[in-house]
Design a protein that fits this description.
The chain contains five helices and 34 strands. With about 450 residues, the protein is α/β, with parallel strands linked by helices. A hairpin with a 4-residue loop joins strand 33 and strand 34.
């Protein structure tokens, strides 16, 4: 806030009679001086001296009158100069105030213009946003109409329209992914053309989940509960909170080289499934899943918990896999061969009440924590040759129907094998400290010393 200028005192005009008084004062003063000098001259004795003195007196009186008048004139001139200077200052002050006023008016006008421009910009942006939203809505509605067509070719075009919409509008990607997942969850008619449409939807999802792809849509989760997938290929994808609960996956389902985050719920029915080189810290839940073909977890590096309670495997391989957290395969059923060769279990492993109906291979596997095989049935060969048990190992009440070998295995502590049974018809190699006695003609019983 600017400080107001100081107020000047009003200028008072000099009355005309004041100049007349000054003139009369000068004449009066001259007369008095002249009269006094003449009186002094008359006192002279000699006539010549008296005359000279009188002339000097008159000259002096006139000089006094002239000097007094000059003084009055000087004062008038000084006053005139002061008035001129004050007028000049007044003009300058008025000019400064006028300039200040003009500056304030200009600033106000600029502020009003700027506010008006901002308002226009906001209106233009709002209008542009509304137009974009209307256009987006129109495109989305049109794409959904195409997806809902009875013609598979038209539905295919609708899927591509949705994908293009998501590519151009990142804020709509989660919605579009949800639509694609919902489409795959719908009942699938037995039509080869529809199969191709659904495979296209699967490829779209997988393409946008690959971090090395130019069209990567990060942070997108997939809800495929109850979906029917044919040859779903998510290899190399980044999987966040994938849900396949109740899904039916025909053909080969591939998660090879994928990176996992969050929680993967894979309680589904698979034919062949590939999890080779899978990595990440997600919790993987395969409880009650069913694998009718081969399941491969070779070289997988699982940083989260793995749960396979009640899972049914036709054939499974964990060759060279690293499992860093708790691994639970209780009540799992292995109909064919189960290979854990050179696998590393850094967390606890629990395979209790499980059933290996074929080959069970744990050669050179490493168990860094406890390994529980209680009440587990081994229907074929069970080979733990070269395995390392760095924690507790418990085979209590396990049943071995085929050849069992712990040859070259190292155990940090004596294993618990209380009441485990093994067939008497095959040669076995048991860990040191295991007592074997014949139960009858067909069975051996194992006890702890």
């Amino acid at each position: 806030m600017s400080t107001p200028p100081p107020r000047e005192k009003p200028l008072r005009l000099m009355p005309w009679w004041l100049a007349l008084v000054g003139l009369l004062f000068a004449v009066l003063l001259g007369w008095l001086v002249l009269n006094w000098l003449l009186a002094e001259a008359d006192r002279a004795i000699e006539p010549d001296t008296r005359a000279t003195l009188r002339v000097d007196a008159i000259r002096t009186g006139l000089t006094v009158v002239a000097g007094t008048g000059g003084g009055v004139a000087f004062l008038l001139a000084a006053r005139r100069q002061w008035i001129n200077e004050r007028a000049q200052r007044h003009q300058e002050a008025v000019a400064a105030r006028d300039q200040t006023h003009r500056d304030r008016v200009q600033a106000h006008a600029e502020a009003v213009a700027d506010a008006g421009q901002r308002h226009q910009d906001r209106q233009a942006a709002s209008a542009e946003h509304d137009a974009a939203e209307r256009r987006l809505t129109e495109l989305y509605v049109r794409a959904m109409e195409l997806v809902g067509s009875d013609n598979p070719a038209v539905r295919l075009g609708g899927l591509h329209a949705l994908e293009r919409l998501g590519q151009d509008n990142p804020g709509q990607r989660s919605t579009i992914v949800a639509v694609l997942c919902a489409y795959l969850r719908m009942p699938a008619p037995d039509d080869p053309r529809e199969t191709e449409v659904r495979r296209t939807a699967q490829r779209m999802l997988a393409r946008h989940l690959r971090a090395d792809h130019d069209d990567w849509w990060p942070g997108v989760g997939l809800d495929l509960t109850g979906a029917r997938l044919d040859g779903f290929d998510a290899s190399g994808c980044t999987l966040v909170d994938l849900d396949l609960t109740g899904a039916i996956c025909t053909g080969t389902t591939s998660f090879a080289g994928a990176v996992t985050r969050g929680r993967l719920r894979l309680t589904a029915q698979f034919e062949d499934a590939v999890f080779d080189d899978l990595s990440g810290d997600a919790e993987i839940v395969l409880d009650d899943a069913r694998f009718t073909g081969r399941a491969s977890f070779d070289r997988a590096d699982l940083g989260g918990d793995l749960s396979c309670r009640g899972t049914s495997f036709a054939q499974v391989s964990f060759r060279g896999a690293t499992l860093r957290r708790t691994n639970t395969l209780d009540r799992a059923r292995f109909a064919g061969s189960a290979t854990f060769r050179e696998a590393t279990f850094l967390g606890g492993l629990s395979i209790e009440h499980a059933a290996f109906e074929g080959y069970a291979g744990f050669r050179r596997a490493r168990f860094a924590d406890m390994a529980l095989f209680r009440f587990t049935t081994f229907g074929g060969e069970a080979l733990f040759e070269g395995a390392r048990f760095e924690g507790a190992a418990n085979f209590g009440r396990a049943v071995f129907h085929g050849l069992t070998s712990f040859d070259s295995a190292t155990l940090a502590r004596r294993p618990l094998v209380d009441q485990a049974r093994a067939t008497a018809s095959a040669p076995h190699a048991w860990p040191d400290g295991t007592t074997v006695s014949r139960l009858d003609g067909d069975w051996l019983v194992l006890t702890d010393r």
